[in-house]
Amino acid sequence: MSRYADFYRESIEQRDAFWSEQARLIAWHTPPRQVCDYSRPPFARWFVGGSTNLCHNALDRHLAQRALQPALVAISTETGTERSYSFAELHAEVQRMAAVLRALGVNKGDRVLIYMPMIAEAAFAMLACARIGALHSVVFGGFAAGSLALRIEDAEPVAVVSADAGSRGGKVLPYKPLLDEAIARSKHKPAAVLLVDRGLAPMPRQPGRDHDWALLRAQQLDTVVPCEWVESTHPSYTLYTSGTTGRPKGVQRDTGGYAVALAASMQHIFGAQAGQTAFTTSDIGWVVGHSYIIYGPLIAGLTSILYEGLPTRPNAGVWWSIVEKYRVTHMFSAPTALRVLRKQDPDWFGKYDLSSLKALWLAGEPLDASTAQWISDALRVPVIDNYWQTETGWPILALAHAVEPQSTRFGSPGKAMYGYHVKLIDEASGQELNTPGQKGVLAIEGPLPPGCMQTVWRDDARFVDTYWKSLPGRLIYNTFDWGVRDADGYHFILGRTDDVINVAGHRLGTREIEESLATHPNIAEVAVVGVADPFKGQAAMAFAVARDSTGLDSAAARLKFEGELMQQVDRQLGAVARPSRVHFVGALPKTRSGKLLRRALQAVAEHRDPGDLSTLEDPVALQQVRDLLDAPKNTAP
Ligand code: AMP
């Protein structure tokens, strides 16, 4: 038996002993009484009776030994700024932010919505919430007013922390007008809005509600805000993610379990040691940003780099110049970013000293073998694909080289990580599939390990019904991904089983995009599917039926309408959700019972065989789509 196999088996068979050992990696105010309470499946309560604080573990705990070590380095190639905060300085900034939030009426258990670009103040805000026991709900800055309004309504934040603008590729993207519009649309009105003025865009303030961070910070320069000790099971945050309905789910995470899971992953999966430097290129609006820009590295005493900008600006060497300058040891990115870099001059690697780098971790979407091969040849360090979800907070599949070095198989994110009782399930029968090579739904036997979602925010029923009751005959966590396993335990992910698509590593629900398009008065019906794209992994493609198609006879008229619809999605959801094309058709392919045949539509859009069409009501609709996509004159932009 290999070392990792033993380690894994212990995590499943002697669960409490295993996790009780891992719990020693963090600081507890009161040690836990019980490791795991699974008396009410599928709700798992980890480290019951223990009290702790995420911010204490990320900052205060390190002050004795590493007060002067950089904790956070905020680099923006958009504004040309670079600012380093030592653990002591970050500790001070976070206390100022915590004091300001308190003064604005935020208390333990309250929600604070963070709608911010990638600037240091976003990290201050997250850590400040953790410090006072408030829950943060970070909304990705690329989302627009409609998406933001839905999240404000669901989270009901007491306060919102935001900024005048973000910037992308040198273009200023104002945030404040989107925030104002979102609050206007939302039934819930936050009492306070705290604004960071970067001097990028004009920012009218609403008296009484809007406050300036710089002004309020100046009043709290020396305020001491002790950490609020919270129960291990106290929620630390919610993070919204797309599912099969148009309504995103608030993934809710605990405190103690999350801290332990991250500390353990920093040790076993990342092999990280205090004093090293992590550079995670994700955004704080996504789970990778929460776990491996903010909490994971800081809990483990690493310096973390927060980067605002493109990977290609001022040139495609910018990330490698950061690796050289800060002696980055651990880098974490997404396959899409590397595919973008690959298009550029490959010589950039040779220009910098990358000898500090120990490995590159990639997650968020499938890593194709050719990109994996290219980047590992260029960097000459291990490239570690790892698979997980917003729901789990840390990798489900990876290779834990720090436990035992293992060989990589390109195309596979690796083996089940300790604590995850991963199974492949037959979708129709609910039976477990044990023969290597059999394709099934990747599922996880409860309890989920520490760090995973506790529930859907204020919707336990949705948590149970969506995730745990969707496979026949058993209570088991459904990842909604197809998978297959080889004889050595390496898994391969074969795409989603539901209507979620993955565009450039961003998870999007096709229903949300459909609902946005359908609000146009001249749209009768619309279907959105994910279509394979060489750079983004997938692209959203829309097929729409116009209510009144008179006036849409010419290609120019259709193009104009298409542009109008795209702008509408930009305005409502954000440019991330904009479909790559909107094609106009006479009808959508449906079954006799009226169900939209998305999979057939997707297959045709990818020029694949749509498979069994016996339930199709009207074959003409699908043929029309095929003709449309095959006819260059109709599809040319
Ligand atoms: P998110 O919750 O945004 O992190 O998206 C999670 C989904 O992204 C998963 O359910 C998968 O469909 C996909 N995904 C994440 N990591 C990988 C990976 N390493 N390989 C293949 N798919 C992945």
TrEMBL record:
Annotated ranges, domain AMP-dependent synthetase/ligase: 62-447
- Keyword list, A-Z: Ligase
Describe the location of the Acetyl-coenzyme A synthetase N-terminal domain by residue ranges: 4-58
Q: Which InterPro entries match?
A: ACAS_N (IPR032387), AMP-bd_C (IPR025110), AMP-bd_C_sf (IPR045851), AMP-dep_synth/lig_dom (IPR000873), ANL_N_sf (IPR042099), Propion_PrpE (IPR012694)
Q: Which SUPFAM superfamilies does this UniProt record tie to the protein? A: Acetyl-CoA synthetase-like (SSF56801)
Q: Which domain of life is it from?
A: Bacteria
Q: Which GO terms describe its molecular function?
A: propionate-CoA ligase activity
Q: Which Enzyme Commission numbers does its entry carry?
A: 6.2.1.17
Residue span(s) of domain AMP-binding enzyme C-terminal: 512-595
Q: What class of enzyme is it?
A: ligase
Which family does the UniProt entry place this protein in? Belongs to the ATP-dependent AMP-binding enzyme family.
Q: Which PANTHER family match?
A: ACYL-COA SYNTHETASE, ACYL-COA SYNTHETASE SHORT-CHAIN FAMILY MEMBER 3, MITOCHONDRIAL
What is the protein name given in its UniProt record? Propionate--CoA ligase
Protein species of origin: Verminephrobacter aporrectodeae subsp. tuberculatae
